[in-house]
């Protein structure tokens, strides 16, 4: 599989559309754990990204420049803690994709490994804290297990998303240990974490994207 810069841009546009559709759902989850604005926050960030995609990045040929610009745009648009997390992920991924107009299976694998490691290092959360890491870490384990291997990327990423979904769903039975929702203590039980949910949706959107690319 080869993903061109134009394909990459199309994927990020699809994330914007997906976030708009899921905005109310993400806010509903967040109302039970925080300020109730996670969906709005994600929407603000991705709408800013979409504006860049349609203007400054419309004819960009460097996948790394696209990813890095998305990271900084998201950070500048979003004031909450999620801004630096995603920004770091996209900046790290941008380094992997730097000066590449096409991304191979190996490039894509390295991109998502770098993205997740960037989020992890910036946030310092661990599995069980009831955060987006509960979604991202299981996906990372699958990707790293195949790092440099010969397996088809689409197949590996599909498995990664399955594990990410399990991780996301596991947050329902966790007590929040980090951030504002940690003040709720046991009252945070029974609610799926909104950050874990949006992280899953972003990964799932990429899986949907590459499935369409494979069929095209």
From TrEMBL:
Keyword Cytoplasm appears in the UniProt entry: no
Its EC number(s): 2.7.1.121
GO cellular-component term (any): cytosol
Catalytic activity: dihydroxyacetone + phosphoenolpyruvate = dihydroxyacetone phosphate + pyruvate
Biological process according to GO: glycerol catabolic process
Keywords: Glycerol metabolism, Kinase, Transferase
Domain DhaL residue range list: 6-208
Known pathway: Polyol metabolism; glycerol degradation
Gene Ontology terms, MF aspect: glycerone kinase activity; phosphoenolpyruvate-glycerone phosphotransferase activity
Pfam families named among the record's database cross-references: Dak2
InterPro entries in UniProt: DhaK_L_YcgS, DhaL_dom, DhaL_dom_sf, Dihydroxyacetone_Kinase
Signal peptide location: none
PANTHER family per the UniProt record, alphabetical: TRIOKINASE/FMN CYCLASE (PTHR28629), TRIOKINASE_FMN CYCLASE (PTHR28629:SF4)
Function of the protein: ADP-binding subunit of the dihydroxyacetone kinase, which is responsible for the phosphoenolpyruvate (PEP)-dependent phosphorylation of dihydroxyacetone. DhaL-ADP is converted to DhaL-ATP via a phosphoryl group transfer from DhaM and transmits it to dihydroxyacetone binds to DhaK.
SUBUNIT field: Homodimer. The dihydroxyacetone kinase complex is composed of a homodimer of DhaM, a homodimer of DhaK and the subunit DhaL.
Protein name per UniProt: phosphoenolpyruvate--glycerone phosphotransferase
Species, as recorded: Mesobacillus selenatarsenatis (strain DSM 18680 / JCM 14380 / FERM P-15431 / SF-1)
């Amino acid at each position: 599989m080869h993903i061109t810069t134009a394909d990459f841009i199309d994927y990020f546009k699809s994330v914007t559309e997906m976030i708009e559709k899921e905005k109310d759902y993400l806010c509903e989850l967040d109302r039970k754990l925080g300020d109730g604005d996670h969906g709005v926050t994600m929407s603000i960030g991705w709408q800013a990204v979409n504006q860049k995609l349609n203007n400054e990045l419309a004819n960009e040929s460097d996948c790394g420049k696209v990813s890095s610009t998305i990271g900084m745009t998201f950070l500048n648009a979003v004031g909450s803690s999620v801004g630096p997390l995603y920004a770091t992920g996209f900046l790290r991924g941008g380094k992997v994709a730097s000066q590449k107009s096409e991304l191979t299976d190996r490039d894509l694998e390295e991109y998502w490994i770098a993205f997740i490691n960037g989020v992890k290092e910036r946030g310092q959360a661990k599995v069980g804290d009831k955060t987006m890491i509960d979604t991202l870490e299981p996906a990372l384990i699958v990707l790293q297990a195949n790092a440099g291997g010969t397996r088809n990327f689409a197949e590996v990423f599909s498995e990664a998303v399955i594990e990410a979904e399990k991780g996301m769903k596991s947050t329902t039975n966790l007590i929040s240990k980090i951030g504002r929702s940690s003040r709720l203590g046991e009252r945070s039980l029974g609610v799926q974490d909104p950050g874990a949910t949006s992280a899953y949706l972003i990964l799932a959107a990429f899986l949907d994207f590459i499935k369409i690319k494979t069929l095209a």
